Request: fold
Amino acid sequence: MPAPTTVELLWGTQQRPKRGPKPALSVEGIVAEAIALADAEGLANLSMQRLAERLGFTKMSLYRYVPGKEQLTALMVDAAMGAPPDVIAAQQNSSEEWWRAGLRRWAETIFERYSAHPWSISLTIGVRTIGPNEMGWMNAALTALDGTGLTGPERLDTIVLVNGHIRSLVQQVTTAGRQETAQQIAGQFAEIMVAAGDRFPLVAAVFAEEAAATGASPATGGPGDALSFGIDRILDGLGVLIADRGRR
Reply:
């Protein structure tokens, strides 16, 4: 039997033998262990050999289920992203305009998924095979924007715009070690401001203002809520465009 393709593995179209002994491994189990390894040690430390050792099998055993790392990482991304949020429920349970509520829920949820698996960002670049969960995320965002008057290409560009904001934030601050990193950066920044704050008065003033607003000291106060701020500004801009569509 030929090795399954990426499309067959992602979309479950591979023809599997109906008879024979129960498999010792499963694609789902292999992918789950690969995700756990990438979460703990990073994508650079993921290899078929390392994965096989964690599972207690030989590397050749894994190839019977997943032909190579390309197929493995495609499956990892789709599993890590999981199912998209229910944007319709978000629209029904919010006082915001329906399209804003749905797109906000979409953005906040995808931020959580990327943050839990930051390695997935590097795997979602360029031409590649899209899995059912990722396709579901696209469909959910389009659902949130359905009826706004935006054209199809504009709705697709909106997804790119919102997703770009989310991905940028996750690349700067990830879930793993977030608190320790924030404290280290804040401590270093405080030292710099003590030593050279007079050379950068506007920088020092802005961070002092934020610390006063949040009740935190400049040494421990983190950055503002860039996630919500960015989402709000993107939605505000879209709102202007959608209102213009409604007037035409």
